[in-house]
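User: Let's play a game. I give you a shape written as tokens, and you guess the letters that built it. Ready? Here's round one.
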């Protein structure tokens, strides 16, 4: 590795980029429909409790590991402790490597939907099914999405990721707020707002708690070294807990706002909020089609969704790129291009899973579902358990001291955090893992 290690320009730069990673398809596409399927407000309350306790703790753990070592995940564990611990880092890199290809396929769909909305194309359930089965077209949009990701990450941490996130994240937020105002002022929106605000605890089952916890981890991008990698670019004097609180806060705020932009509109037009994955690509276009100004709002919605996906994709690519450039003496630019190219190729079978390769089934799953299952259902929880245990045991008490940065003392609540990472989080994540299998 030649020269000085790249780093964030400022604390705000890190918070924006890390929030960019956290805010993604998980917040805007998945959160509203999972909340819709699990009883609305009651689910949201459970989600909030989990994300601000366990989610926050694991996020902070990753930041502490990254900043202490100033290395990409595998090298970070090697620097701080060695032994078998680097395996946790390798698992993280592998997870990112497997998530980005299929994430990019869906990212491609979001770009295609900007175009479809502008063109006034038919976007009902059959049209959506036909589109994702098309193969050639979805692969082309997957290529486009991957190419934009590669171009931004190529510019480096400060000159690429941070620079673009500083523009894209505020844009996303402004669009989101406009959409919320539009949705909640529709006649009939009250039912949707009520669904969102009045908890019905009778609809909460163990399964919904499980769904809330998995959603929380995926949503703040923990468990696979994104926050270790991004944390490795933080300056030595910065205090970490405040940053983590901002990131969790922004991520949760965006998920809630996305719910408020979507559910009231869905109710206002008498549609079903518990639609599942089709909520964004099938129900919403129908909602926009009936809404005054829906053409404009629909276009804005899909632009926002693409931006959210893009800033998350950057972080996934960065994990693998940082790993390669740290471990081997290869420059950033060729690495970004090569890894981006490989991920594009890996995404092709995922894109074809909805059409030509629908019948290609392993362990009862299509290739798309299998990649998702292995990465987010198995590797991500395993990585998250490793990261939490590391901070609670192997890296304690140094982890506590790391929180305050070079010139401070560990916060008084550090022991609480330790038990969160050492015991509570690993057990809860183990439960997600077993439940998912
Ligand atoms: N947090 C992102 C989302 O909500 C997804 C993601 C997961 C990104 C893991 C990076 C790492 O969509």
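Assistant: Ready! My guess for every position:
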């Amino acid at each position: 590795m030649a020269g000085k290690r790249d780093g964030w320009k400022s604390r705000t730069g890190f918070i924006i980029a890390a929030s960019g990673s956290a805010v993604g398809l998980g917040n805007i596409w998945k959160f509203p429909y999972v909340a819709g399927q699990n009883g609305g407000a009651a689910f949201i309350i459970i989600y909030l409790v989990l994300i601000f306790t366990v989610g926050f703790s694991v996020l902070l753990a990753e930041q502490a590991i990254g900043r202490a070592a100033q290395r990409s995940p595998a090298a970070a564990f090697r620097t701080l402790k060695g032994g078998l611990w680097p395996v946790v880092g390798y698992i993280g890199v592998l997870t990112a490597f497997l998530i980005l290809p299929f994430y990019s396929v869906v990212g491609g769909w979001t770009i295609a939907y900007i175009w479809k909305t502008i063109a006034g194309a038919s976007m009902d359930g059959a049209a959506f099914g036909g589109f994702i089965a098309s193969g050639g077209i979805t692969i082309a949009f997957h290529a486009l999405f991957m190419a934009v990701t590669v171009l931004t990450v190529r510019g480096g941490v400060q000159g690429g990721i941070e620079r673009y996130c500083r523009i894209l994240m505020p844009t996303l937020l402004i669009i989101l707020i406009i959409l919320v105002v539009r949705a909640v002022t529709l006649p009939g929106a009250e039912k949707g707002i009520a669904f969102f605000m009045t908890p019905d605890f009778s609809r909460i089952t163990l399964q919904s708690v499980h769904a809330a916890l998995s959603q929380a981890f995926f949503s703040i991008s923990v468990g696979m070294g994104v926050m270790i990698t991004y944390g490795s670019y933080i300056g030595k004097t910065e205090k970490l807990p405040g940053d983590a609180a901002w990131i969790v806060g922004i991520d949760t705020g965006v998920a809630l706002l996305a719910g408020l932009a979507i559910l009231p509109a869905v109710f206002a037009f008498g549609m079903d909020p518990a639609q599942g994955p089709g909520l964004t690509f099938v129900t919403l276009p129908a909602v926009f089609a009936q809404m005054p100004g829906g053409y404009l709002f629909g276009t804005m919605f899909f632009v926002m969704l693409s931006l959210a996906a893009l800033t998350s994709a950057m972080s996934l690519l960065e994990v693998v790129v940082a790993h390669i450039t740290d471990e081997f003496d290869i420059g950033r630019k060729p690495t970004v291009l090569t890894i981006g190219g490989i991920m594009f190729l890996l995404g092709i079978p995922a894109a074809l899973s909805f059409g030509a390769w629908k019948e290609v089934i392993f362990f009862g799953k299509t290739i798309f579902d299998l990649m998702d299952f292995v990465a987010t259902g198995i590797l991500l929880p395993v990585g998250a358990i490793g990261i939490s245990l590391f901070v609670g045991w192997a890296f304690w008490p140094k982890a506590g001291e790391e929180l305050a940065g070079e010139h401070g003392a560990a916060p008084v609540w550090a022991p609480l955090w330790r038990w969160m990472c050492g015991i509570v989080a690993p057990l809860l994540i183990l439960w997600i893992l077993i439940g998912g299998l």
